[in-house]
Amino acid sequence: MSGNGNLNAEDPESITVPLISGNNRCAFNNSSQDWRSRGSVHVFQYIFMKWFSCFLVGIIVGLIGFFNNLAVENIAGVKFVITSNMMLQQRYWLAFAVFFSYNLALTLFASTITALVAPAAAGSGIPEVKAYLNGVDAPGIFSLRTLIVKIVGSISAVSSSSNWKGRAHDRRDLITCGSAAGIAVSFRSPVGGLLFALEEMASWWRGALLWRAFFTTAVIAIVLRALIDFCLSGKCGLFGTGGLIMFDVYSSNMSYHLEDVPPVLVLAFVGGILGSIYNFILTKVLRIYNLINEKGIIYKVLLACSISIFTSFLLFGLPWLASCRPCPSDASEACPTLEGRYGVVVPAGLFVPVIVTGATYGRFVGMLVGSHTNLHHGLYAVLGAASLLGGTMRMTVSLCVIILELTNNLLLLPLIMLVLLVSKTTADTFNSNIYDLIMKAKGFPYLEAHAEPYMRQLTVSDVVTGPLQLFNGIEKVGNIVHVLRSTGHNGFPFSSEDFAKRGSGNGDKIEDIELTEEEMEMYIDLHPFTNASPYTVVETMSLAKALILFRQVGLRHLLVIPTMSSRSPVVGILTRHDFIPEHIFSLHPMLVSSRWKRLRFRLPPSSK
Amino acid sequence: MSGNGNLNAEDPESITVPLISGNNRCAFNNSSQDWRSRGSVHVFQYIFMKWFSCFLVGIIVGLIGFFNNLAVENIAGVKFVITSNMMLQQRYWLAFAVFFSYNLALTLFASTITALVAPAAAGSGIPEVKAYLNGVDAPGIFSLRTLIVKIVGSISAVSSSSNWKGRAHDRRDLITCGSAAGIAVSFRSPVGGLLFALEEMASWWRGALLWRAFFTTAVIAIVLRALIDFCLSGKCGLFGTGGLIMFDVYSSNMSYHLEDVPPVLVLAFVGGILGSIYNFILTKVLRIYNLINEKGIIYKVLLACSISIFTSFLLFGLPWLASCRPCPSDASEACPTLEGRYGVVVPAGLFVPVIVTGATYGRFVGMLVGSHTNLHHGLYAVLGAASLLGGTMRMTVSLCVIILELTNNLLLLPLIMLVLLVSKTTADTFNSNIYDLIMKAKGFPYLEAHAEPYMRQLTVSDVVTGPLQLFNGIEKVGNIVHVLRSTGHNGFPFSSEDFAKRGSGNGDKIEDIELTEEEMEMYIDLHPFTNASPYTVVETMSLAKALILFRQVGLRHLLVIPTMSSRSPVVGILTRHDFIPEHIFSLHPMLVSSRWKRLRFRLPPSSK
C-alpha cells in the first residue's frame, strides 16, 4: 500500500493523472491510506520527527557554521599576522609574495575541489534554494549544498520506523528551516536569518513554518552563544572575542535631527542606483564566467586563480593608493591593532562584498558631508551598507533586522528603514533583485506570485498542450511502460512501494525498472494509486486565475476539465511550464508588444 | 460597465454564481472590463493611490498614536503629581479621594461614550481585525475603530478619478498595513508592529503586502522620531524625554553563561503555564462581563465603574502591602523621582497588563534565584515579561522583535528566543492563544489554515447543502428579485453600477432597491456580470483539500461540480460556513469522537 502521502490533500506534489472511468466515484476511499489515520503512535512519531529534524538542523548548521567561521578567522588571521609582521620589518616584496601565494594556494584548492567533486556547490546557493522552494525540482539543483539537510533527513527517516517518509511538503519546510539556519549562523543574526528565509526564499508561507523556523534559529542562537562563550576563554586561536554582535556600533550619545535627513536621503537614492548597477554588472560578469566555465575544468580553475591574483594585487596595493592616517590620539575607543579583530567576515557569496562596498561608500558620503551633519562617519557607513543592500537584495524587514542584529543599535532604526525604503524603490525601477536575476540567468522556471496582465486575456485552454495519455482503471503493464518510456512527463500515478521515488528528489527512472516479458503482459489495478480528486479548473478560466490557484496551493499539476461534457473527461494538464512567460509568448507572439506597453508603467512595482 | 473588479481573477471576493448555459464559452471576454486593461494612466493612478493610502495611514496613525500617547502621559502624569504631592504632605485620605475620583471620572466618561456612541469600539480590537483579515465580513465588525482607514480610503477614492474603487483585496491590504501601524505606534516598535500584523493578524501573506506594510511602518518610525525629537525640547508637558526606546535596559557589561540557563528554563516553563491560565481566566471573565453588558447601557457603565473602583483601591493600597525600600545610594542610575518618567504606558488592551505582570513575575523569580545567577533582576523582569507574553499571545518572531525594540538590548536575544520557545510550547499544550479564544467567544467563523484530520474522511459533497438557485443567461427581473428576497445568501452575480455594494462592506440590501411593476417584468442579460470561470472542485474531492484551496486562494465561494455529467452542471456552492467544524459536526455527529481521539496527540501543535 502507498505510504508516500500521494493521496494527501496537503501534498502539493501529489500526482494528478485522473482515472475518470465509470466506477471512479466509489473506487477508492483515499483517506484510509492516509498517514494521519494510521493511529496515534504514528502521528506522534511523525510530529516528533518533524521537530527533531529542525532541532538537528539547528545543531548541525550551528556547529558547521561556527567551525567554518573559526577556520576562516584562523586561516585568514595567520596570513594577516605573517604579512603584517613582514611589512613592519619593511620586507614588502616578501610580504607580497607570501600574501599572493597564500591566497592563490587557497583558491586553487577550493576551485579544484569544487570543479571536480561538486560543480553545483559553486556560487551563492541562495538562488538555487529559492528556486527549489518555488517548486523547481531540477535534478542536481543541490548536491554538496544540501548534504546537511539530507543527512538530517536520512537520520530522521531511519531512526523513526521505516514507515515515515518525508512528504514533499515536509522536505520543503525542512529546507526553509535549513536556509534560515544558514543565514542566521553566517551573520550571527537569528531573527534576521529567519526573516530572510521567509521574505526572500520561501514561496509558501504558513504559520506552522514560521514557528518551526523560529525553533531552528533559536537553537542556532543558543548553540552559537554557548560556543562563543567557550571561545571567550581564549581557546579558539585568532577567533574573535566578540559576542553575537559582529560590529557593535552602540553609542548612547548618538542623536540625529531633521537636518540630518536630506543627506541620508541622497545617500539612499544614490545607493539604490549603485545597487541596480551592481546587479546589472554582476549578471554580465556571471555570463562571461559561465562562458569560460563551460570550456572545462582547467578553465574553471584558471578563472578562479586569475581572480585571486587580481584581488591580491588590489588588496596589497590599496595602502599605497590612499595614504594611511595616524590614529587620532583623543579617540575614545582603542585603535585597531594586530591583536584586534580584523574584518575577514565569514559568509562569502553576495552579502559581504555588498556590505563592505556599501560601508565604504557611506563613509565616503559622510566625509563629503563633513561638519554639516551630527551623524558620525561610522553611522554613515552603516547607512551606506544598508542602502547598497537595499539596492541589490531589495528586501526590507529581514535586511533591517540583520543590520540591527549586526550593529546592535536600535536607535538607528528609523534612519535604516528610511534608507531601505528609498534605495529599494529607486533600484526597483531599473531591474529585479540580484537573486531573481541569477535565477533567470541560470534558467530556473521560477513562478512569480502575481499574474501578469496579459494572462488575464488568455484562458487555460489557450496554453494547455496535448495529446493526453489516459489509462484505464485496470491497465496492461506493457502499455504503461510504453507510455512512460515514450513521454517526458513525470506526473504518473505510481506510488507503490515498488515504483516510489527513493531518497529526496532524484528518483529512479523508468529505464531502471526491469520487467520480464511475462510481467509486461499482466494487468495492474491502478485505482489504489490514483488521485481520485485532483485540483481542477474549467477550460474557460483565465490563465491569471489558474496561476493564482497553482501558486497559492503549491501545485505541480492542475487538471483542465471541459465546461461541456465531451468525449474526453479531461482537456489537459497544466504544469509549471505552461505558466512561464517564455512558453506563453511562443504560443501567442502577439502578446509581446502588449506586455511591454504594460511594463513601462510599473514604476513602483507592486511585488518584491 | 463594472468597475468593481468583480471579474478580477485576483479578487477573492469575486462572485461565483455560474451561468452555465449553452453559449457560455463565448459569452464574455472578462478581461475587457478589467481595470488593468483600462489604460496606462489608470494603472498608474491605481498604483499611486495604493501607495498614497499606505502613506496616509502611516502619517495619520502616527499622529493619532503620538497625541494619544501625549494626552495619556499628561492626564495620568497630572494625577500622579497631585496625588504624590498630597502624600508627601501626609494627607493620605485626601490623596486617595483625588486618585479615586480622578480614575472614576475618566472611566465614567470613557465607558459612557463607548456604550452610547460606538459599542463595537470596546475591547482589544485585534480579534476583530484578525477575523476580518480571515474573510469574516460581518456587518458592524468595525465602526469607530476603522474610521481612520475608512477616511483614508475615502480620501484616496475621491481624490483619484471616480473610477478607482478599492477592491476587497486592496481594502484588506490597507487594513493589514493599518494594524501594523497601530502596533508600531503603540510600542514605538516599527519592525515589531509589522511582524505582529503579519504573524498574528494576516491570513494571506504576499510579498507585495510585506513591502507595503514596511513602507507604512517606516513612515510611522519617521513621524514618531520627528515628534519625539520635537518633544525633547520640553514642549510636551509631562511627556517623557525618552526616544523610541521605551525601557532602555542596555548595559554593556551584561553577560551570562551556561549556569544561568536552568533557572531561565524554569522561569519560561512556569511563565507558559501562567500564560495559559491567564487565557483561561480571561475568557471566563469576559463571558461574565458579556452577560452583564447584555443587560443594557446602565449595566455596562456600572461594570466599568466598579472595575475602576476596585483597581483604585488595589493600586493605592499596594504600597502598604509591601514596604518601600530606600533607593540604594550606590546605584549607577538615578533613582526614579517625581520628575522622572512614570510607567503609564499607552497601549491599553491585552499587552500592557501581560507585560507588567510578567515583569513582576520575572523580578520575583530573579529575587528567588538571588546570588545563584549572574543575571541582573532587571533582565529577569524582561525575561519574565517575555515568558508571559509567549504564554498568552503565542507569537514568536514578532514578540521577539517587539521586546528587542522595547528594551534596546540585542545581547539578550538568545535568552529571549529560548524563553519564547519554552513558554509557547508549554502553553500550547493547554489552550489556544488569547486572540483566538476571544474570537471564538465572540462567535466569529474563523477559518484555520490547516485541515483537521476528520476533514480527510469527508468529500465536499458530504457537506454541501442545497437547493441551488440557477438563473438563465437572460432572466426576468422579477425572478431575480424573488430569489434575492427569499434566500439569505449573498453570492449573486450583480456588480453593475446600479447594484454594486457602495462603501466598504456594509452594502445595500435588496429590500432597499425599488423597482416598478414594469421593471419587474423586463428581462436582463446577466452575462456581462457573470463570472464565467469560477474556482471549482469535483464532488469527490476531500473536504481537507477543498479547504486548502478555499483558504490559500482566499475565496468566498467555491463551486462543486459533478464528476459525471448529470442534470445540473453544478452540485452546489461551498462557503466559509461549510468548513466550520460546528457545521460539519452537526451534519456528521459520529465524527466528534474521532476528533477528540486525534486532538489528544497534538502535543506540539503544528500551527501557531
From TrEMBL, chains A, B:
<dbReference type="InterPro" id="IPR001807">
    <property type="entry name" value="ClC"/>
</dbReference>
<dbReference type="GO" id="GO:0005247">
    <property type="term" value="F:voltage-gated chloride channel activity"/>
</dbReference>
<dbReference type="GO" id="GO:0009705">
    <property type="term" value="C:plant-type vacuole membrane"/>
</dbReference>
<feature type="transmembrane region" description="Helical">
    <location>
        <begin position="204"/>
        <end position="224"/>
    </location>
</feature>
<feature type="transmembrane region" description="Helical">
    <location>
        <begin position="48"/>
        <end position="71"/>
    </location>
</feature>
<feature type="domain" description="CBS">
    <location>
        <begin position="529"/>
        <end position="590"/>
    </location>
</feature>
<feature type="transmembrane region" description="Helical">
    <location>
        <begin position="264"/>
        <end position="285"/>
    </location>
</feature>
<feature type="transmembrane region" description="Helical">
    <location>
        <begin position="410"/>
        <end position="430"/>
    </location>
</feature>
<feature type="transmembrane region" description="Helical">
    <location>
        <begin position="297"/>
        <end position="322"/>
    </location>
</feature>
<feature type="transmembrane region" description="Helical">
    <location>
        <begin position="174"/>
        <end position="198"/>
    </location>
</feature>
<keyword id="KW-0869">Chloride channel</keyword>
<feature type="transmembrane region" description="Helical">
    <location>
        <begin position="92"/>
        <end position="122"/>
    </location>
</feature>
<feature type="transmembrane region" description="Helical">
    <location>
        <begin position="142"/>
        <end position="162"/>
    </location>
</feature>
<keyword id="KW-0813">Transport</keyword>
<keyword id="KW-0677">Repeat</keyword>
<dbReference type="InterPro" id="IPR000644">
    <property type="entry name" value="CBS_dom"/>
</dbReference>
<comment type="similarity">
    <text>Belongs to the chloride channel (TC 2.A.49) family.</text>
</comment>
<keyword id="KW-1133">Transmembrane helix</keyword>
<dbReference type="InterPro" id="IPR051280">
    <property type="entry name" value="Cl-channel/antiporter"/>
</dbReference>
<dbReference type="InterPro" id="IPR046342">
    <property type="entry name" value="CBS_dom_sf"/>
</dbReference>
<keyword id="KW-0472">Membrane</keyword>
<dbReference type="GO" id="GO:0034707">
    <property type="term" value="C:chloride channel complex"/>
</dbReference>
<feature type="transmembrane region" description="Helical">
    <location>
        <begin position="342"/>
        <end position="366"/>
    </location>
</feature>
<feature type="transmembrane region" description="Helical">
    <location>
        <begin position="236"/>
        <end position="252"/>
    </location>
</feature>
<protein>
    <recommendedName>
        <fullName>Chloride channel protein</fullName>
    </recommendedName>
</protein>
<keyword id="KW-0129">CBS domain</keyword>
<keyword id="KW-0407">Ion channel</keyword>
<keyword id="KW-0868">Chloride</keyword>
<dbReference type="Pfam" id="PF00654">
    <property type="entry name" value="Voltage_CLC"/>
</dbReference>
<keyword id="KW-0812">Transmembrane</keyword>
<keyword id="KW-0406">Ion transport</keyword>
<feature type="transmembrane region" description="Helical">
    <location>
        <begin position="378"/>
        <end position="404"/>
    </location>
</feature>
<dbReference type="InterPro" id="IPR002251">
    <property type="entry name" value="Cl_channel_pln"/>
</dbReference>
<dbReference type="InterPro" id="IPR014743">
    <property type="entry name" value="Cl-channel_core"/>
</dbReference>
<keyword id="KW-0851">Voltage-gated channel</keyword>
